[in-house]
Amino acid sequence: MTKPTIKAVFFDFMGTCLDWHSSVVQALPSAIPRAEASKLALEWRQQYFRENSTRVSQNLNPEDIDITLARSLEVVLARFPAHSPHFDDQTKSHLIRAWHSQTAWPEVSNAIQSLRNQLGLEVFVHANGTTRLQLDLTSSSGLDFDMLFSSQLLGVYKPSREAYEKALELVQLQAEEVVLVAAHAYDLRGAKACGLRTVYVHRWTDDVDEDMEAVKTEFDAFLENMDDLPLAIQTL
């Protein structure tokens, strides 16, 4: 039986398409050694995911990502007490704003253009967060999509099944006609359970607790970057 034709690609955004780590580390107080700043940033990111997971498990509505990030930062600073004196209210606000300005990983723009221009696919952001955040990030990264689907807009966090089904309903496509591209295994697992095809893009900044050897065989394709994304999608 012939597989249905792929018509669209859903992209996770931060981590997958965007280098959040550089923006956050650069915004951290300069008094913190860069190696420590990197550790703090990575832990902040992980705590953000933990906060979202808790909200999903409690069936809570999505909240403004700035609020989640601010709460996560307080938790993380308690684990880095030596650096806490560097964080006054102004610094904390500056750090939250840093998440709204990120650059794309070097190969992402070309990959998206190839999907559109060579393969004729529609491309969408499908990510947790707010619409305002996604608007800011498309501006700072220069990336262009057909539509931005945020958890705020959809009313539910990934990896809840409803997050994928609602987006599919809005673009009027079947699950098997769409590929999710993400650097987060939990996200791809949710999409796979809904029938979407899945491409994992490995980013050193994300999924730091995952067993990459296991992840390599879990999805339809595993890539170290998006250079070969168009080819990978063509061969799914």
Automatic annotation (TrEMBL):
Q: Does the keyword Coiled coil feature in the UniProt annotation?
A: no
UniProt lists the family membership as follows: Belongs to the HAD-like hydrolase superfamily. S-2-haloalkanoic acid dehalogenase family.
Q: Which GO terms describe its molecular function?
A: hydrolase activity, acting on acid halide bonds, in C-halide compounds; phosphatase activity
Q: Which UniProt keywords apply?
A: Hydrolase
Species name = Penicillium olsonii
* Protein name as catalogued: Haloacid dehalogenase, type II
Q: Which residues form the signal peptide?
A: none
Alphabetical list of NCBIfam families matching this protein = HAD-SF-IA-v2, HAD_type_II
Q: Which InterPro entries match?
A: 2-HAD (IPR006328), HAD-like_sf (IPR036412), HAD-SF_hydro_IA (IPR006439), HAD_sf (IPR023214), PGP-like_dom2 (IPR023198), S-2-haloacid_dehalogenase (IPR051540)
